[in-house]
Amino acid sequence: MSSTTVVPIATPKRSGGSGLLRYLVVRFLLIIPTVWILTTLVFFLMRVTGDPITAALGGRLTASQLADRVHEAGYDRPILVQYLEYMGNLLRGDFGTTISDGRPVTQVLFQYGSATVELAFYAVIVALVLGIPFGMIAAKLRDRWPDAVLRVLAVLGYATPVFFAGLVLKLVFGSWWPILPISGRADSDVELVMSGVVSPTGIYTLDALRIGDLGAAGNVLSHAVLPAIALGLITGGTFLRLTRTNLIGTLDAQYVESGRSRGVSEFRLVTKHALRPALIPIITAMGMQIAVLLGGAVLTETTFEWTGLGYQLAQYLTARDFVAVQGIVVMLAVIVAVTNFLVDVIAALIDPRVRY
Fold it and tell me: For 293-319, b where at least 16 C-beta lie within 10 A, e where not — what string?
């Protein structure tokens, strides 16, 4: 009687490390075509109304002076030649020179970009503080009156135009209850102190802490409260609804029910076991919300006279300085693409399922 021996077939194991690395490399490489497409679209859209010199200075120069300026800048050449030259300059970090004030666009980006980053950071904090805790409350009290009220407030939060929210905040805290500053990044004396900081980052709060001036840091933070709230409401409502929806799903999961049957407190079940899986969609959505924040920053900074990229973009649009507008929009596109990549990295580290 013969016996047969069953030899187990070895199945290849998927390496988590190589899968993560492959995923991150692919996501990083996608930044290149994304930025290229956006840059190309911006370039040709800016040329729809003609060359930037004529758009900015037409009517203020004689025909011969205008023709000389156009020829000097090279805008009388074929559009494809201009495009290839522009892309080559971008690869060297040259965004051009503004027409209205004659400054390198890179100087404008570095000078005002940090202000927008600072405001966006505070707005994200406001959105998270409003969205996640109230989303947890709404999920825990689902289908009761607090849940209904919070859902209505969430809809109002992301449906209200940011400039309208800013005007209401300025009316309330500027006229009815004047306890917070309603314009600027800081008081004039603090602005003077910030201008004297050696090797400044442009982020006033950080620069004030670097020189040990807590009073200046507090002044900057007080100026940031209202614009951060106005801008944070856009994404705060979105985060609230996402937290509620996903937390309801995880609270009904089997492992949560098992913990509940073992006597684990509801607070621990929500905060330790159910919240982390529910946060993954929020982290993913955060990358898309950065684009919303940067778009809202234009109106927010203009409303509160917060001198960042959004404020400068509005000024250059008024001056029809399309070279400056083009450079700022391209930089904002790069920021959005890089931010989405970083969000993908965080999501992959939290949830291995997104790597495959």
Answer: bbebbbbbbbbbebbbbbbbbebbeeb
For residue 83 the two structure tokens come to 């495009």
Of 199, 214, 229, residue with least CA distance to 306: 229
**Contact yes or no for 305/183 (Cβ under 8 A):** yes
pLDDT at 354 over 50: yes
The 3-state secondary structure of 32-59, one letter per residue: HHHHHHHHHHHHHHHCCCCCHHHHHHCC
The highest-confidence range among 31-35, 52-56, 276-280, by mean pLDDT, is 31-35
Domains in the chain: boundaries: 18-48+95-355
pLDDT grade for 7, boundaries at 50, 70 and 90: very low
Residue with tokens 């029809």, as numbered in its chain: 320
Q: Is the pLDDT of residue 283 over 50?
A: yes
Q: What is the pLDDT of residue 196?
A: 83
Q: Domain 18-48+95-355 belongs to what architecture? A: Orthogonal Bundle (1.10)
Give the angle 342-31-299 at the CA atoms, nearest 5°.
Answer: 75
How far CA 312 is from CA of 39, 114, 251, 354, in Å, comes to 19, 13, 46, 38
- Record the pTM: 0.80
**What DSSP string runs through 300-356?**
HHHHHT--SHHHHHHHHHHTT-HHHHHHHHHHHHHHHHHHHHHHHHHHHHH-GGGG-
Residue 244: exposure state from Cβ atoms within 10 A (0-12, 13-18, ≥19): buried
Instruction: Transcribe 187-202 into DSSP letters.
Output: -HHHHHHHHT-SS--S
